[in-house]
Amino acid sequence: MKVAVCTKQIPDPQAPQHLGEDLRLVRSGKALLDDADTYGVELGLRLTEASGGDVVVVSMVPGGETAGVRQALAMGAASAVVVSDERLEGADALTTARVLAAVVRRLGADLVITATESTDGYTGTVAGQIAGLLGWPALTFTRGLHLEGSRVTAERQVEDGVWVVEAELPCVVSVTAGIVDPRYPSFKGIMSAKSKPVEQLSLDDLGLGVQVRERVRSAREAEARSAGTVIEDDGTAEAAIVAFLESIKVL
Predict the structure, then answer these.
(1) What count of other Cβ atoms lies within 10 Å of the Cβ of residue 243?
(2) What is the enclosing helix (H) or strand (E) of 81?
(3) Whole-model pTM?
């Protein structure tokens, strides 16, 4: 079984962040594997360790950056595919999904695993878009997963509880944090990651002529939150709390 884990390489969240002249996040610094993707990498590794096969890390990034995917390779992934093309600068979620879906087709993957959303984008739409483009089932917001033969059973987190859903391979699964505990790369894993294959692809290699049309027109600082109301209990606190809850129509 070939498992493609879609990952995102993001700027170091501990470093100062700023917008460029195009009002987009500057990504020229050190890139790291998004923490949200470590759960998908770990799940892929556990599935292939139990059923056989390989994990291939897939990423779309400017400048051919590979530092982030090397982290996934150090965890145990067998190889990586990185798509880098100047024409993808400013790519929106659908453009990203088209590129990742094209890589999945090229790989002949049986299962695609993604995070629910990236920590620098938060659209939460890419997994569903990849599935739609491939014509595969999408098991999203998965907090537990079991694979038996070609059947995937997932526990799907919803607002009022948990659904148990099933699909046949091939399919796309997006996972929530906590589905597994990601392993720490060993020293041996870190050293071996340096020699694992990382294929660099362009849009032409994928047969895509993607044109990015999204532009950021304006950006402003988020409004600071105002201080909350402090209620001191002098014997009237209960009435004050009830009045507040009624004012915001909770009661």
Answers:
(1) 12
(2) strand 79-83
(3) 0.86
Per-residue model confidence (pLDDT) at position 132 = 98
Pair of tokens at residue 15:
């470093």
Residue 232, C-beta contacts closer than 8 angstroms, at least 6 positions apart: none
Burial of 72-98, coded b for 16+ CB within 10 Å and e otherwise, reads bbbbbbbbbbbbbbeebeebebbbbbb
Q: How far is it, in rounded angstroms, from Cα 67 to Cα 190? A: 11
Q: Which of 18, 91, 36, 101 is nearest to 61 (CA)?
A: 91
CA end-to-end span of the chain: 54
Check residue 6 and give its pLDDT. 98
CATH topology of domain 2-206: Rossmann fold (3.40.50)
- Report domain extents, the chain: 2-206
pLDDT tens digits, 61-84: 888 889 999 999 999 999 999 999
User: Using one digit for the tens of pLDDT, what is the confidence trace for 174-219?
Assistant: 999 989 999 999 999 999 999 999 999 999 999 998 777 778 889 8
Residue 65 main-chain phi, psi, to 5 deg? -65, 135
C-alpha Rg value of the chain to the nearest Å:
21
**How far lies 31's CA from each of 4, 8, 59, 145, 209, in Å?**
20, 9, 12, 29, 26
